[in-house]
Specification:
Layout (H helix, E strand, L loop, with lengths): L1 E6 L2 E7 L5 E4 L11 H11 L2 E6 L3 H6 L3
Antiparallel strand pairs: 1-2, 1-4, 2-3
Length: about 70
């Protein structure tokens, strides 16, 4: 799952892994590394940021990436 996080002066992305935790994060949102979706939502709200799902992989996309 790809998440877009926006703040007053930046836009950054998060990628969730199969384990339900942030696997990759843009440098500006590195604080989210390893967090669950619920933890990211809570922390983003506390920081006054917005987080939105941009894309969720389908089963076919996941299979295509297993090469």
């Amino acid at each position: 799952m790809l998440i877009r996080v926006t703040g007053p002066n930046f836009v950054g992305g998060l990628i969730f892994g199969n384990n339900g935790r942030v696997a990759e994060a843009a440098p500006v949102v590195k604080w989210a590394q390893g967090m669950t979706a619920d933890q990211v939502r809570a922390e983003a709200a506390k920081r006054g940021l917005k987080a939105k799902i941009v894309h969720t992989l389908t089963g076919a996309e996941i299979e295509a990436g297993k090469s």
